[in-house]
Design goal:
Length: about 240
Amino acid sequence: MTITGSVGAGGVNHKDDVTAVQNLLIAAGRLTGPANGVCDQILIEAIRDFQAASASHPDGRIDPGGATLKKLTSIEPPSPAGAGGVQPLPLKPPAAGPAEWSGDSSQWPQEKKLQSLEPGFRAKVEKVLAALKAAQFEPRIVFGWRSVAVQQKLKAEGKSTIAFSFHCAQKPDGTPNSWAADIIDKRFAYSEEAEAKGFWPALGAAAKAEGLVWGGDWKTFRDVSHIQGRANSELAAVKKESGL
Ligand SMILES: [Zn+2]
């Protein structure tokens, strides 16, 4: 089973590919039929829910030869990474910067993810985490920083449309200085329970109390786990500050 182009959020969405993906999701019990070949919000949510269940970063899109398609079409052997079936990205270390910051940053311990944030932003994120814990949530950072190499790899594979994100901000010497973090409750991850238990609104409220931007407010692509310390309009400036 292959598709000729990407399906889902920001995808190419050829009718035959959309139909094929809808049928796979219907077969997996993730979507109610019949397949109609139209990529709508219901399909994107179904893709995101399926991705969330495998603890990968849910971008709502399925790419030809990508991990989500592989998972959807076959029963995966247990991941060597263990916890949650997260598949480590086969990454080369960044060309510049200490080796200790190399590898799949989504697999780093929480403390290291915090250290990968821009210091002022990090202090606010720590307050957000404290507020969520005080409200009996169990917040976990999924992604703090990720390297430009990773981001560009994602773009080259058609998994992202941008070559630089707020997650990629770095000091001019190449060490992490992220202006973004993705936060979940470890009990709910991206499941419907997160919404039902009020985690996303709580994250949004805690972030905004610290003057941060919450991706859940975005209209075109609601990115509920994403918070950032700069406005979207400042992306070019952040890239420049990063020496990139
Ligand atoms: Zn993010």
